Amino acid sequence: MFPDIYIYISLFFTSFLASTVLPLGSEAYVAYVASIGHSPVLIILIASIGNFLGSLTTYYVGLMGEKTILSRYINEKNEKIAKARNLFNRYGTPVLFFSWLPVIGDVLALFAGMARTDIHKFTLFVFSGKLARYVFIVFFFSA
Fold first, then answer.
1. What is the DSSP letter of 102?
2. Could you give the 3-state DSSP secondary structure of residue 105?
3. Do the Cβ atoms of 52 and 37 come closer than 8 Å?
4. 63-67: long-range contacts (C-beta < 8 A, 24 or more apart)?
5. CA distances from 25 to 13, 51, 82, 95, 105 (A)
6. Given pLDDT bands bounded at 50, 70 and 90, which one contains residue 32?
7. Of the candidates 131, 116, 115, which has an alpha carbon nearest to the alpha carbon of residue 51?
8. pTM of the predicted model as reported, rounded to 2 decimal places
9. What residues contact 63, with CB distance under 8 A and at least 6 apart?
């Protein structure tokens, strides 16, 4: 059996990678680690931080690649992009709570970067959503 430190390191990287554009999920591994009796608090913190940092990386890709992504894949005039960005910033940031959802969660983080969503709002909604998901998984599978 691996020492605990390796389990927590692999938990961090699995959670991190699952929150990027890679087709990977962390829920099964988090549930497994919880089911074999590791610290629920450490599991929740490590998985939440890793998953949040993965989303932050995706946000940064959207932020830095906005012009390339928009010009290649969206093909809209700047007025429409500005309007979409304003609507997302005004009404859409709470939807980032659901960035933990498979498939669309990564797109939400990417678009949040492209829309230049305030990093404080991004952090609040994304981290709280990911934390809530891992609390549910850990307490469901460690009971």
1. T
2. helix
3. no
4. 63/113, 63/114, 63/116, 64/113, 65/114, 66/113, 66/114, 66/116
5. 11, 10, 33, 20, 12
6. very high
7. 131
8. 0.83
9. 113, 114, 116
15 close to 50: Cβ distance less than 8 angstroms? yes
What is the DSSP-derived secondary structure letter of residue 103?
T
Helices then strands, counting H and E runs in the chain, come out as: 7, 0
Both structure tokens of 71: 């010009």
3-state helix, strand, coil in the chain (%, to 5): 80, 0, 20
Q: What does the DSSP assignment read for 29-70?
A: HHHHHHHTT--HHHHHHHHHHHHHHHHHHHHHHHHHSHHHHI
Tokens of 96: 């980032």
Which residue in 122, 114, 22 sits closest to 74, CA to CA?
Answer: 114
78-98 pLDDT, tens digit per residue, is 565 565 556 566 668 898 998
